[in-house]
Predict the structure.
Amino acid sequence: MVTLPLDRGPAATAGDAMAVVDASGDVTGWSEGARLLTGYTAEDVTGRPASELVAGEPAAAWRALLTHGDAVVAVRHKDGRRLELALRICPLRGGKGRRPGFVVTAPPEAGERIPAERTSGERIPGEGTLGELAFKQASMSMSIFDTGQRYLRMNDFACQVMGQPEEAFQYRYFPDTVENAEHSRGFLRHLEIVAETGQPVHYESWTRSPSGRRMHAWSFEMWPVRDQAGELLGTALAGFDSSEQYWARQRLALLNEAAGSIGTKLDVIQTARELAELAVPRLADFTSVDLLDSVLQGEEPATGPVEGGVELRRVAHHSDTPGVPEAAIDLGAADIYPAFSPPARALATGEPVLTRSGDSGLDTWFAEHGARSAKLREGEDHELSLMAVPLVARGTTLGVAVFVRILTPEHPDAFDLDDVSLAEELSSRAAVCVDNARRYTRERTTALALQRSLLPQVMAVQAAVEFASRYLPALSQAGVGGDWFDVIPLSGTRVALVVGDVVGHGLHASVTMGRLRTAVWTLADVDLPPDELLTHLDDLVGHLAADESAMMGEIGATCLYAVYDPVSRRCTVASAGHPPPVVLLPDGTVKVVEVTAGPMLGVGGLPFEATELDVPEGAVLALYTDGLVEARDVDVDVGTAALCTALAAPARNLEDACDNVLKALLPQRPADDVALLLARTRALDADQVAVWDLESDPALVATARQYATEQLTRWGLDEAAFVTELVVSELVTNAIRYGGSPIQLRLIRDRALICEVSDASSTSPHLRRARTFDEGGRGLLLVAQLTDRWGTRPSGTGKTIWAEQALPVQ
């Protein structure tokens, strides 16, 4: 972009004294002509406010210059004299209208004419005025071209930059004086623009210093030179070496980019990779990041420096050359760094180490390491410049980052102190992100281990259902959640299917999930109906929230509890703010079960309702958490429809069906935890169940024993007749004596033999220890001793007492 100074007053000429003032009013450039005019050297004034040179009111003088472009200003000479100078000002504009400064000039007539002869008496041809000497001795590059872009004059600084005396350039066309005409085409074009338009322009470019060791950024101001009649005679230019300012801006831009590109994820290796990729090629040709093993394992590394030889593991490296040929260590491999190597020295001192080829420590390290020695021999024509910067966060040493430049004739610049400072800033930022990722990894691993230990590890095979399940922890940076599922065996071959989700993530959610899962098992063991169970669970969550709200924040959860009876083939479902189940019928039809959704657990004071539905044998019930069907960009209705479609897809078994659902709904790792439970229903045949209704008459106890014995004979279970007769006798006697009509006896034959007696009383019996002379109180104790399990459950008209005994393996 061409930048034009304001058209104010006559253009500056080659003989003028010149000063450069930045936007804040400080002097940043001072020509030799200005020194001769005022007596101040560049060292005297550079960096000081220009107002200190004014022998009057600086603000008024500055306003006059800005308003008119020129003004007579009283300036204080170094020897105390007062000089009235006709000053001119030329603003320098940067990008988007910003003004980085001004060029202030004074004509040579403002000063005294100096003698035409030196003190030695030697005549200086053509150099009699102060302005001419100021041009020649200016501390910036100044040149004059004719309208055909041929050199007319060059000052000493310009000759120094070009590497040849003025005589080598005079009257020569500019492109003929440079080696790379393509690179200088923009410079030539701007000279032509001044000659064509008669307007000043601004141009920025890169050149290499005469030594060839460093690239320089130049800012050129070009303006037309006219005679008294206004005829264009040529183009004058002044070049300012802005390399330091340029590199400072580049360093700030790189640091600003690092703030958004390093630590984008709470992942140690990803963060190390981001550091390496950011540094290449803008800072180094090759970058590697090596960390201590304890960091990768999420453990707490030792605080303070790491002294002596140290073993580090390569987690990331990046090169400007495809294939990373500079790497002597493979990703994931470990290497021992001796104490004298630059990385080990950086870890021991906690400070960056700057070195290059020829340093004894670097050369010895390369020579003693076979792989690095081979890499060095491959590039033996090139020297290396190397920085080793320790990765330290919160006083903890995590590893080291190594930055390498390969010095070639095209790129000969070794690292300097500014580069060390930049690398230190980048490494410090990356170290904090690595430490955050390490801490997160440790907490997530702990929470995940705790959560998995609280989830069902091995679930027994159930008579009522065949099931398969999946649990996927979230990829979220918030940590693992509190999703869980369960398959709980109930009496009478029934089964409870449970799925729940605790609000929040992290250890607290996992612990709360474990407590709720334990509570569900306890309440299920009492055989409460689904709606009553959720009511008790809601009370528990309310108590937990009251106890822990001050310390852990609010507690909330959703839960779905379903009980399936393979005898009646009915399923009873109750929900506490949880997504409804989906059922796949044997004919391939898929539908969402309409369940009355109660409030979330912990709200309190609101009822839960149970929904009953007939479920044919072979139907598949799908219970899940909201992470499966809901996401930021997916509506829950859309997700549920996708679940129905995936569930209807052909599958050899339930395990394949689980995989089909996850592949269809979660092509990538989920943002929230996901629990999925699929259960295919079974049903008991009519010949597996025998039921008898009994009158409340003690004389019918013998009849009940006879019914049971005859049924066992039909089932071929005569060996279980003795124990079953005793159990039936005790349970029926208790029902007649304490319960009352209606009384029902039921035998169920499946994987076990189950004896159930129902009566009209809601009072649950309990074991007690009978004394020596007591006539009763030993019946339930006898039942408990003769059977594997026994218990009681409420029913719609009273209670049911059941006892279960194992059958011989067929």
Remarks:
- The longest helix spans residues 417-454.
- The radius of gyration is 45 Å.
- DSSP finds 20 helices and 32 strands in the chain.
